[in-house]
Amino acid sequence: MSHADNYGLTPPYTTIALFGANGQIGDYILEALVHPPRHQFNIIGFIPPSTQLQSNKNAKNVTVKEFDLITVSPLEAQPTIQDAAADAGVKRFYPSEYGMHHIYRKPGDSKGYVHPAWNLKADINEQALLHPSVRNGSMSFTLIGCGDFYNQAREKTWCPWAQPPSSAPYQIHVIGSPSAQADFTHLADFTAFLVATLLEPQKSHNQFLNVVSDTISHEEIKALLEKYSGKEVVLDVRDLSEMHKVIDTEGECIKEEELKDSAFPVDFWFLVKGLQGSGRFVRHPSQIHNGRFPEVRRTSFEKYFKERFGEVGAKL
């Protein structure tokens, strides 16, 4: 990325390097970068060898480069990417946060535990913030957290409402209390927020920021989904004790294949849903920064369902 980076009124960045530009989140980010308000970025999209962009393949402001990650995961490659960025004189680095971390507490155990997925991300991001270029001020950072991405079409178990309608009722899996509220984020809101931080870099200089689209319970989601889809919605409510059992066995105790139909490990899925059902997957309003960029609108579940299903269900 280019341009001086300080607390003054700096202009938008001009060149953006996006790693994983054809991933689920990367594709949303790329779309937002290609069509930002009042500005045009030059984008270098890095993708794995022998793959291609999902969208914007012919965008004139996108240059595609291959990046081989055969021996490591994209997250584990972050320190190498940051080293190269520092050598290239990059002024702003965005660590791969895009989530919400928690300490897991077992019943009757005074120790706290962190799931390996969250521990790896915390470790890698800690390295990013302690990088020599960040510490000496030649590179700044913006770390963006969010709620549960609720419109992931690939996640049939996590996001049943994002799947094509069928004759069967929608089923929403809940671990714990269905009345407990949790933070959720629409991918388009997240990417619009990210682009806003690039358009006004002074507002995101060395900042930990969080973007949330809706704070809502599974009971409330059920009511809205029934209203706008016109279909029956079933809540599969399981006790929190099942979460503890699944984590103890790393998911081996789960036999239902539909609960394994995810890009995430079964124990991680139960942990996130269990934290939602225990009322812990929610931030205090002071930790949510949507207001820093008021042009970024929140897509509530109701707005999402209304756009997805129209008014048909509401009239049934």
UniProtKB/TrEMBL annotation:
ATP-binding recorded as keyword: no
Domain NmrA-like span(s) in chain numbering: 75-235
Database matches in Gene3D superfamilies: NAD(P)-binding Rossmann-like Domain, UDP-galactose 4-epimerase, domain 1
Gene Ontology terms, MF aspect: oxidoreductase activity
The entry's keywords: NADP, Oxidoreductase
UniProt xrefs under Pfam families: NmrA (PF05368)
Domain of life: Eukaryota
Record-given protein name: NmrA-like domain-containing protein
